[in-house]
Design brief:
heterodimer; A: about 325 residues; Enolase-like, domain 1; B: Ubiquitin-like (UB roll); DNA polymerase, domain 1; metal-binding (chain B)
């Protein structure tokens, strides 16, 4: 690991010198530092800023402090009651030990990654811009099918973020408020940047507006627990007179960012709440998919999970 | 830096790069927590940080000054006795992490925390629940079948 200096942040105003990074739970950053993929000169610890509370917003909804641990958020009574999709997504992610350290802000800012990004000795446009992307011809079974570029096909691994993007969450930083949908970037020709945040911009909280819909998260993975998603779906929906009157859908493990499925939502609104409608909506979203040699299986997988989750929510 | 481990305060002069796991093993001589994968994937390094189970390999020691740390050397819990009674290990390498994780997990259950397989009104310590809640700890000997009843019986005490 490269040497660095350490200090604790004293206020929430953000700001970092070049080469410095914020440290929260560290479950991703410290790992990347050990691997030589992240090489900060200085760490600024933001875990002692008191950003560890969940509060109710006056107009309804919740404000989740950036330092709230994933385990505390998953178990929070208001999250479990009003946003089961969020609690379920959190509990589907990582392990009990990791959830106890990982924070809300840190979970969002974990790196979009693949095995080549995690190996400092390999070419990767994300950790060494311009060095190429071995994943396109190599191991890409679990990589992106939507929104990728010739420069990067990595996926954002968070489960929590998929639920939050379906919930129209807003990220509050030391400088501004950003809809979560716009926080993460697609790779384009600059895959080194995962988000639109400026250097030194500090996430302080995440606001989740009222939902008022039944919701659920379904994650498919290669083993039953403690594995990244191969595909996941966050959904919320309500049916009246047999028709879908409101719906939210987001997909995980399909893109460089948590993927809000707005095309599918639009295709579904007002349609009969049937398996045929659900599959057609998924197809509408996946029409833009560009699968690679070994990950086209994600298309029928997402399609079937969308139908299964929506059938569960609307039957 | 100042670390509080098993109720004892230690003043250490170590590099900021030192993980909590390395501080415990290499500087304090507490070799119960094991370095398995060193990337948070196996759970052998599990300790309790302010009572919560965590992977000590992914934590910088310098960031945990003054936070009470409990290692297997400081644990006195029925889980230990039940692991022995049920033969909940073979080579023993993962055992300190398994036990610290189980102690932390039982505290989570007592606080009503759900898991990914929890259903309203169902037993939070069914076989499926224990397996899900303990999935952050790997055992290459495959002693899981005996750990599950050991943990359940410890919980009843």
């Amino acid at each position: 690991m490269k040497t660095f200096t350490y200090r604790t942040a004293t206020d929430v105003s953000g700001g970092l010198e070049p080469g410095a990074a914020f440290l929260a739970g560290g479950t991703n950053l410290v790992d990347l530092m050990k691997l030589g993929v992240a090489t900060p000169d200085a760490l600024v610890d933001v875990t002692r800023l008191g950003l560890d509370e969940v509060t109710e917003l006056p107009e309804g909804g919740l404000r989740i402090g950036a330092g709230v641990r994933n385990s505390d958020l998953a178990a929070h009574p208001l999250v479990r009651r009003d946003y089961p999709v969020l609690s379920q997504a959190l509990l589907a992610g990582a392990s009990g030990q990791l959830r106890n350290m990982a924070t809300t802000g840190g979970n969002l800012l974990q790196r979009t990654r693949c095995r080549y990004f995690m190996d400092a000795a390999k070419p990767c446009n994300k950790h060494a811009p311009g060095s190429g992307c071995p994943a396109r011809e190599g191991d890409h079974r679990n990589l992106a099918i939507l929104g990728a570029s010739e420069h990067c096909v990595a996926t954002h691994p968070s489960d929590m973020a998929v639920a939050l993007v379906a919930l129209d969450a807003v990220v509050n930083t030391s400088e501004r408020s950003i809809p979560l949908r716009e926080l993460h970037r697609l790779p384009g020709d600059d895959p080194a940047r995962d988000t639109v945040l400026r250097h030194g911009e500090l996430i302080t909280s995440v606001d989740v507006p009222p939902l008022g819909l039944p919701s659920a998260y379904r994650k498919v993975r290669d083993r039953a627990s403690y594995a990244f998603a191969v595909a996941s779906v966050a959904a919320a929906a309500r049916v009246a007179d047999g028709r879908v009157i409101d719906v939210r859908l987001a997909f995980g493990a399909v893109a460089h960012k948590p993927w809000r499925a707005l095309i599918a939502e639009e295709a579904l609104r007002g349609k009969p709440a049937t398996k045929e409608s659900f599959l057609a909506a998924a197809d509408a979203e996946l029409a833009a998919a560009e699968p690679l040699r070994d990950n086209a299986f994600k298309l029928p997988l997402i399609r079937n999970v969308v139908a299964a989750v929506l059938e569960g929510l609307t039957s | 830096m100042n670390l509080v481990v098993n109720g004892v305060e230690h003043d250490l002069d170590v590099d900021p790069r030192t993980t909590l796991l390395d501080a415990l093993r290499e500087h304090l001589g507490l070799t119960g927590a094991k370095k398995g994968c060193d990337h948070g994937q196996c759970g052998a390094c599990t300790v309790l940080l302010d009572g919560r189970r965590v992977n000590s390999c992914l934590i910088l020691a310098i960031a945990q000054q003054d936070t009470p740390i409990t290692t297997i050397e400081g644990v006195d819990h029925p889980v230990q006795r039940e692991f022995a009674a049920h033969d909940g290990f073979q080579c023993g390498y993962c055992t300190p992490g398994q036990i610290c994780s189980a102690v932390g997990m039982l505290d989570e259950v007592s606080r009503g925390w759900p898991s990914a397989v929890s259903r309203d009104g169902a037993d939070p310590l069914s076989d499926a629940e224990i397996r899900e809640r303990m999935s952050g700890n790997l055992c290459r000997c495959g002693a899981y079948a005996n750990m599950v009843p050991a943990i359940r019986e410890a919980a009843a005490q």
